[in-house]
Amino acid sequence: METKQQLRNRLKSIEGHVRGIERMVEEDEYCVDIIKQTLAVQRALEKFNSIVLERHLQGCVTTAIRSEDAGERERVITELLQVFETSSKI
Amino acid sequence: METKQQLRNRLKSIEGHVRGIERMVEEDEYCVDIIKQTLAVQRALEKFNSIVLERHLQGCVTTAIRSEDAGERERVITELLQVFETSSKI
Amino acid sequence: METKQQLRNRLKSIEGHVRGIERMVEEDEYCVDIIKQTLAVQRALEKFNSIVLERHLQGCVTTAIRSEDAGERERVITELLQVFETSSKI
Amino acid sequence: METKQQLRNRLKSIEGHVRGIERMVEEDEYCVDIIKQTLAVQRALEKFNSIVLERHLQGCVTTAIRSEDAGERERVITELLQVFETSSKI
């Protein structure tokens, strides 16, 4: 699993790409090239999300499901379904 | 949670809608209307998947994570990540 | 571009796969395998949609945009944006 | 249609949200909250893309399709299909 610093580096890189798209807009670059860059940023965010979800599954979800608190188990499962449904709508 | 029969009814309905799209193609209906029908079928499949995932989380995932088999825990978590990554690519 | 018959064959195949998923539910097959089959059907629908969109772009969109009717041009562009926004939400 | 400045403001806001997610990671905030913020940024990028696509359809696509250059018409249609296929995979 990635470290916190590796996750932050991913976000720094994404931030830089967003600034790059700003320059493309400023310099009236070809629309399709701008769209393609934006889609690349979205893929990078998707990858970031997948790594965070892995940390969550290994951490909080495992702890909650192994606990004797049925309410906690239900909560983390409901949350996972929300994340699944929202992310498949992006 | 939905019963097996309710899940099967959802699939029967989806099957019917796919046949409906076939008729639209056969009768040269407007392309955008065909595309919109297809997107509706995809949403229905997404909803079906979400219900199946809920059953999976409540069943196999909970059983595996509460077990003493670290390998099983790792397996179901890896599977969940694959489902998450594939579904966000549709 | 694909013929009408080729498009219909794609839909027939999709229909068959949906029935296959029904059998998997009936026979209590592993949830993740059911989800993976459903995601494959969604990808097939996506491919079908892309072919229909190509026909639309080559046909109605080109005819409308090359016409002298500004209203028609606006209509097909608005429709394309709706298709783009809806499909990126699936 | 939005002005260039409005598009740039959208990107500035997205950039700010990405920095916000960095802080959440730094402060070990709850994983699901981080994921939800990232999904919100993806939706904002999707909206940005839709506006850029509208500009493209109104501009370059209309100019190319109304031209007598069949090759240009084919090129912009192929590009639109690529954008459609890539964005539905995000």
Automatic annotation (TrEMBL), chains A, B, C, D:
Pfam family, one: Trns_repr_metal
Leader sequence segment: none
Official protein name in the record: Transcriptional regulator
Gene Ontology biological process: negative regulation of DNA-templated transcription
Protein origin, superkingdom: Bacteria
InterPro entries in the record: Metal_Tscrpt_repr, Metal_Tscrpt_repr_sf
A Gene Ontology molecular function term of the record: metal ion binding
